[in-house]
Each structure stands twice: as structure tokens, then as C-alpha cells.
Amino acid sequence: xxxxxxxxxxxxxxxxxxxxxxxxxxxxxxxxxxxxxxxxTYKRYKNKLRKLGSVISKIGxxxxxxxxxxxxLAEVENKRVLNDLVDSKHLSEENYSYVHYDSSDxxxxxxxxxxxxxxxxxxxxETFSVYLQKENGERDYTRDILLVKxxxxxxxxxxxxxxxxxxxxxxxxxxxxxxxxxxxxxxxIDAINNKDSTAKIIVMGDFNDNPNNNSVKSLEEKxxxxxxxxxxxxxxxxxxxxxxxxxxxxxxxxxxxxxxxNNTSLKFVNAEVFNSKFLxxxxxxxxxxxxxxxVGKKYKGGYSDHFxxxxxxxxxxxxxx
Length: 321
Description:
Blueprint: E1 7-18, H1 42-58, E2 70-76, H2 79-86, E3 96-100, E4 110-116, E5 120-128, E6 132-133, E7 139-140, E8 145-152, E9 155-163, H3 171-195, E10 200-206, H4 214-223, E11 225-226, E12 240-242, E13 245-247, E14 250-255, E15 266-273, E16 294-295, E17 298-299, E18 309-315
Helix pairs in contact: 1-2, 3-4
């Protein structure tokens, strides 16, 4: 009989292109092969797995020595890399399982959910596509949205994991894509609420938008979600840096029902960016920014171009499995 921890860390991490070293003829993974310009070798792949595992095992408040119970991930290629990740040096004893589906994303990168099966019991999962069109009318394929339903501390949770379209072609020029993704999530949440009027919902992801952008604000307003990262983000703190300005594209929002302590067994404690010094560049003009695996084609051997983010939830009741 195992007693359930009283405090839970729930995290999200964009792990910057976790590709295996095999060529997938159905996706654009050609940069991440041993003989490509990036020279993505088995040694580099294993090094990244080890480093990512060390980060994931540590995410959370300093006084909590337990690895996160749930971790949403962005930029994973397939089940093989997830198997290798959960079996890597720092995670093999954490007994993580995962939920993952291959999407139609042109680069072949997806979202996934790691979870500790001894604490979080998955009941169902499914994916939803975001329909986008190019200017010529062709379908523009992007990452699917993942929905996982399960029980934590006796509480049913609906967890949505997303990775919205990038700003590569310009923030304003691509805003409609992120609004389409936000609208899709609002539709998913609406359907959940129609079936379960007491649903506790958590939405996590790399939204490629900040807390003050319209797409993220629409989740708050239309789906009545609380965004604790609005007050975490500042001039000196974010999850990624661009042109020496901090952005907080990585966020976790949740139902305001978590504040109704008469009707929830999980209470929100805090939200934070996990930006411990070991995750940063130590020297030079980029000091303090995420220590990346690559800068362009140049291999740096770091972790990711994003910091993880997390929230802490406290059990209000004692549960034993």
C-alpha cells in the first residue's frame, strides 16, 4: 500500500527537437540525422536524453524532493524517443508512463504527456486537429491538441497539452493560427463542461504567445480559466529569450473551480518558471538565457531553448492506493 504524496508538481517543458537519429520518410526530419549539417549523432542524442531526464527529475519547488507527477512535453518525434527518455539515467526509477499520438505536423514533432502511473490514473485520451489553410487553399498541418482524462488524489482531471503555431513568419501574420488553436481548445472545454459541470481542467503548452496576447486571453475569458503566469512573467523572467527580451510562451492555466475548496481535493499553491542556474548559459552575452542544444546548425550540447514551467497543487485530503 502506497500513500499518495500531499503535494504535486505539474509541469510543461518544450524540449527542443527531441528526434531520434533514424530517417522518417514521411516527415521533414532531415536536419536530425548523423550525416546532416547538424550531425545529429547517437552520442549527441544520448547526451540530450540524459540532460533532459536530469531536468525533468528536478522540476519543482526546492523543498519538494519528488519529481513531477505530470509533465506535458512539446517537440517529441515519436514513441521511440519517449521510451528512451523515460528509460534514461535520471528517470528510469521514476516509473513514468506516457500518452502520445503521432500528428500530421510537417516536421513530425508532437506533444506528449508523461505521468507517474502510481499516482495519476489515466482513464482516457484523444487528440484534436487544428484546421488551418495556406494562402493557396491547401491544408496547413500543425501539431494536434492532446486531451488526457485521469484521477489524481481522488480528483478527476482533464489535461490539455498544446503546441501552437510559431511566429516565424511574423507575429501578426501568424496570429490567426494561434487564435484557431485557442478556439479549438475553447470548443473542447465547452464539450467537457457540458458533460461534467464540475470538471477540473488544466491547459498547458507552448502557445508561442505571451499571457497578454489575444489567443491566451481568450482561454481565460471564454473557458473561465485562471492564468497564474500573468504575474510570473516580467522583464527579468520568462521561459525563453528572443532579442534579449523575455517571453513566457510556456504556460499552465486551470479551471477557477480549483479555488472552491469545498468542492476540490486539490488546492493551487504556486506557479513558477524552472530556471535553475544549471539550465542557463554561464558566460558571454547570452548569460542567464536557456542553454540550448543548437543555435542554428551549431551544436552547443545544452538542454533546450525553453525553460520548463510548473504549478504546485496540494492535496486537501489523505488518499491511499
